[in-house]
Write a structure and sequence with these properties.
This protein is α/β, with parallel strands linked by helices and about 325 residues long. The protein is about 40% helix and about 10% strand. The protein contains 15 helices and 9 strands. It has a 5-stranded parallel beta sheet with strand order 1-7-6-2-5. It has a two-stranded antiparallel sheet with strand order 3-4. Helix 5 crosses helix 6. About 5% of the residues have low confidence.
């Protein structure tokens, strides 16, 4: 039985990256499909992620009849085993209904990706705030942890929805070391990058270009950086505990005591000499390997920088001390 599956989340939660990976997984198994998008940041007829991945897609304009297009392709002998719909929040209600018709009438799986709204409106949830409240009220959990990097943009919205003050733990690190980590992942998984069309973005062909893509205002590093900085400028800095990687790995007792105080919970005595990974993220969906969040077992070791060796002195000098949370702390 075919399904219409909607992957939704906040801005910058990796939806387009997952769309690209889903398309790649189907194509690698020899399945043919059609890929749609609408108003992507990279331009018309493209799906792009903040990692620099990019592929061509059919642009969904307001007058496009998606069901009719699929039927016409099938009628001339086309093979369609799956359909990817990125930026689905921009599709009209009629086009969403057409996707349902494709699933029910043609038996083709549809994978849609987008921000909360259009598809969920069909379930009589008229806006983002009601969807979020609905989730909180029905998930059955007293405490919810969400690691999305985009929540600082929505503090006012969440506080209005819950009538409670927001608390965000922002895990931060020196920017030169973040870029060094990204570059190492790029080199380690370069073959996958080529498969995903990584080099369709010319800037990804050099280390200077890659870092400029990642740290741009719309990049995978730059966007949360700008969002957090804007949160400070909006006068909401008291809602955030900046948790610096270099400092807490060197002095974990001090920093975890601050964390528990910040969230208003009783301190739990952790054993930092015997670290063990209990939960693993589903990292394969991002196309850069399945071990992006692997934790070394044993004793906690203070972080060391290898940025000079990986990205070079020029980039280290450019990025070093650009961390505004250090200045805020002073």
């Amino acid at each position: 039985m075919a399904e219409l599956i909607y992957y939704c989340g906040t801005m910058d939660s990796g939806k387009s990256t997952l769309a690209l990976q889903t398309a790649h997984n189907h194509r690698s198994r020899g399945r043919d499909g059609v890929i749609f998008t609408s108003r992507d940041r990279a331009g018309k007829g493209l799906i792009s992620s903040r990692l620099g991945l990019q592929i061509e897609a059919l642009e969904v304009d307001i007058d496009l009849d998606i069901h009719k297009l699929i039927v016409e392709r099938l009628s001339i002998g086309g093979r369609i085993s799956f359909i990817i719909c990125d930026e689905a929040q921009f599709y009209s209600p009629a086009q969403i209904e057409q996707l349902a018709q494709i699933v029910d009438g043609l038996g083709i799986d549809v994978y849609a990706f987008g921000i909360f709204n259009k598809l969920t409106e069909e379930k009589r949830l008229p806006n983002d705030m009601q969807i979020w409240v609905y989730f909180v009220e029905t998930c059955g959990q007293e405490i919810i942890f969400d690691k999305n990097r985009g929540w600082s943009t929505h503090i006012e919205f969440v506080e209005k929805a819950t009538n409670k003050s927001v608390k965000i733990i922002a895990c931060v690190r020196n920017l030169e070391d973040i870029c060094s980590s990204f570059e190492k992942l790029f080199r380690k998984n370069r073959a996958d990058g080529e498969i995903h069309g990584e080099f369709s973005n010319p800037k990804m062909k050099s280390i200077d270009g890659r870092i400029s893509v990642w740290t741009a205002d719309e990049g995978v590093i730059g966007r949360p950086y700008v969002s957090l900085m804007d949160t400070i400028h909006r006068g909401l800095g008291d809602r955030i505990l900046f948790f610096p990687y270099e400092e807490w790995t060197a002095n974990p007792e001090h920093w975890f005591a601050k964390l528990y105080e910040f969230i208003g919970e009783e301190y739990f005595q952790h054993d930092f000499d015997n670290i063990e990974q209990k939960i693993r993220e589903n990292d394969a969906g991002y196309g850069w390997g399945s071990d992006l969040h692997e934790i070394k077992s044993g004793k906690l070791i203070p972080a060391k920088s290898d940025a000079y060796a990986i990205i070079g002195r020029d980039w280290v000098n450019k990025l070093h001390d650009s961390e505004f949370w250090k200045k805020k702390k002073k």
